[in-house]
Amino acid sequence: MIKKTVEKAIVHQIKNEEHSSRLYLAMASWCQVKGYPGAAAFLYKQTDEERMHMLKFVHYLNDRGGHSLLLALDDPTAEYKSLTDLFEKVLKHEEFITAEINKLYEVALNEKDYTTGSFLQWFITEQIEEESTVHGILDKMKLAGKDSGGLFLIDKELSALAAAKGAATAAPAE
Ligand code: OFO
To answer: Which own/partner contact pairs does 166-172 have at CB distance under 8 Å and 24+ positions apart?
Structure first.
């Protein structure tokens, strides 16, 4: 049976992942409306990935004898000054999630819950990848500056990135 402190911390992380999913959905919608179809496709994939993260926590906690409760969520921000501003907020959010996963890991280790510690390893690695992807996108956007041709190309690249994510998560062909 999972300890109450760990259970509470996981329920909090379920809320974080669900919020991430809504935040990226709001961002995807903004990109679609503002004429960035590649960025929109990338963020629509991202919103699905965050929901998958949330479900991983939900199943894990229930499997360990806890109860995955859903908490009230804040409204996701939906207005951005530019595409770069939006991706800066993505990076900030991912850094926040990394800190939250680290806190959860600490709670698990303090409770000597090594099973949860090992479960969290996947998320720790995932955060490295997510932060590095967004860093890469932002570096290119900063180089492009206000050049609309440069932003057009970055948007195309994001579309390819979204397609690659789809290929990576799709079921293998029979
Ligand atoms: Fe983007 O992160 Fe979930 O965990």
So the answer is: 166/45, 169/49
CB contact at 8 A, 89 and 77:
yes
Per-residue model confidence as pLDDT tens for the chain (174 residues): 899 999 999 999 999 999 999 999 999 999 999 999 999 999 999 999 999 999 999 999 999 999 999 999 999 987 999 999 999 999 999 999 999 999 999 999 999 999 999 999 999 999 999 999 999 999 999 988 878 889 999 999 999 999 998 765 554 444
Spatial contact of 37 and 73, defined as CB atoms under 8 Å apart: no
**CA distance linking residue 101 with residue 92, whole number of Å:** 14
Contact 134, 94 (CB under 8 A): yes
From the CA of 149, how far away is ligand 1's center (Å)? 31
How many other C-beta atoms can be found within 10 angstroms of the C-beta atom of residue 91?
A: 16
To 5 degrees, how large is the angle CA 136–CA 90–CA 44?
95
Ligand 1 environment, Cβ below 6 A: 17, 20, 50, 53, 94, 97, 123, 126, 130
Domains, in order of start, for the chain: 4-167 (1.20.1260.10)
pTM of the entire structure? 0.93
